[in-house]
Write a structure and sequence with these properties.
This protein has helices spanning about 45-50, 80-95, 155-170, 185-190, 205-210, 210-225, 250-260, 285-295, 305-315, 325-330, 335-340, and strands at about 15, 20, 25, 55-65, 100-105, 125, 135, 140-145, 150, 175-180, 230-235, 265-270, 300, 320-325. It has about 375 residues and is α/β, with parallel strands linked by helices. Strands 3-4-5-10-11-12-13-14 form an eight-stranded parallel β-barrel. Strands 1-2 form a two-stranded antiparallel sheet. Helix 1 links the parallel strand 3 (about 25) and strand 4 (about 55-65). About 50% of the residues are buried. The structure holds flavin mononucleotide (FMN). Flavin mononucleotide (FMN) binds near residues 29, 232, 271 and 275. It comes from Candidimonas nitroreducens.
């Protein structure tokens, strides 16, 4: 049997800030929509994540920081004691299996619907611009609601909701948290001029549009310490309905990354290209040049196969590689990559919703 551990250091330990990881392959965050309306994960999730604990780092599925931050039915939360107890089962199971897991902190902003909001209230966003596309509710797919613009004096509450969720994630036994500032959710909606038309201190200039993300990072670092907080960015992923990314990706995200350096975070995690789609970037955007601005550990993701992972790691372009979809059908992905074993492709119908089927029933290889 081949063993690629001599050909690449992807299977060797490293560290992300204070988080020691057993190899350089991470499991990317994957929403699997198998949680009740209370947002409480349980034994099913504990089994699923423990099966994947061979990853150097697991980034949990995106986890709502508040009732208002929710935009998809059947997704977990991290703001109530019951949710913390549910996640504790998951973190204990992952740790017992020798893995590390961080919690991805999520507020969807305008990517929501009144049916998913407390008391049927309007979702909140930087500006009252509806996203094109459909929200996944308990009643099926419906058009996104037009959000209301957050008042300036509400923004400290948003920041404190992140801090609260970060504290709850700590109580749940995670190894750290990943601030979800990617994929056109609330923080990204503030960053990009296509979705942020504000005229206060949180809109207009790049400095203003990146302010909320930086305030959130500061608050979360205040809870966890800088070396257990990561951040996820997707500078070129179009919004739902294909709203173009920011009109000046290099300047906007370049400024943000330079500011993030001041925190000395555990890591920065990029979706390279269009999340779940092409790795191509718009003309004038060089994601490797943006990445090079970051002074800490870097996790690259999006459309990687083992060849690309080896070559980008070999060229020193990534510290770790995150695989998303391959982890759905291959709980033992690390073993399969290391020994050149065939991968199982999970059916797309299994991605979201349902129970154990298509979730915890993918077999690990017996060597
Ligand atoms: C089923 C599914 C759920 C996802 N859920 C999340 C999520 O919760 N948070 C997030 O940042 N990205 C999410 N993504 C994006 C993945 O983390 C990843 O960026 C994408 O799948 C590309 O990586 P891959 O080519 O290795 O799959 C999801 C993707 C899929 C397919």
């Amino acid at each position: 049997m081949v063993d690629y551990s001599k050909a690449t250091d992807l299977f060797s330990p490293t560290r992300l800030g204070a988080i020691k990881v057993s190899n350089r392959i991470a499991m990317a965050p994957l929403t699997r929509s198998r949680v009740g309306d209370d947002g409480v994960p349980g034994d099913l999730q504990a089994t699923y994540y423990a099966q994947r604990a061979g990853a150097g780092l697991i980034v949990s599925e995106a986890t709502n920081i508040s009732a208002e931050g929710r935009g998809y039915a059947m997704t977990p939360g991290i703001w109530t004691d019951e949710q913390v107890a549910g996640w504790r089962k998951v973190t204990d199971a992952v740790h017992a299996a020798g893995g590390k897991i961080v919690n991805q902190l999520w507020h969807v902003g305008r990517i929501s619907h009144v049916d998913l909001q407390p008391n049927g209230q309007l979702p909140v966003a930087p500006s009252a611009i509806a996203a094109e596309g459909k929200a996944f509710t308990n009643n099926g797919f419906v058009d996104f609601s037009t959000p209301r613009a957050l008042e300036t004096d509400e923004i400290p509450r948003i920041v404190s909701d992140y801090a609260h969720a970060a504290k709850m994630a700590k109580a749940a036994g995670f190894d750290g948290v990943e601030v979800h500032s990617a994929n056109s959710y609330l923080l990204d909606q503030f960053i990009r001029d296509s979705t942020n038309r504000r005229t206060d201190a949180y809109g207009g200039s790049i400095e203003n549009r990146t302010r909320l993300t930086l305030e959130v990072v500061e608050a979360v670092v205040g809870v966890w310490g800088h070396d257990r907080v990561g951040i996820r960015l997707s500078p070129t992923t179009p919004d739902a309905g294909n709203t173009p990314p920011d009109s000046n990706v290099m300047a906007t995200y370049g400024y943000l990354i330079e500011k993030l350096n001041n925190f000395e975070l555990a890591y920065m995690h990029f979706v390279e290209g269009d999340t779940g789609g092409s790795r191509k970037t718009p003309q004038g955007v060089d994601l490797d040049a943006l990445r090079a601005l970051f002074t800490g550990p870097y996790i690259g993701n999006n459309g990687y196969d083992f060849e690309l992972a080896k070559s980008r790691r070999g060229a020193g372009l990534v510290d770790m590689v995150a695989f998303g979809r391959p982890f759905i059908g291959n709980p033992d992905l690390i073993t399969r990559l290391r020994y050149g074993l065939a991968l199982t492709e999970a059916p797309k119908e299994a991605y979201y919703g349902g129970g154990a089927e298509g979730y915890i029933d993918f077999a690990a290889t017996v060597l």
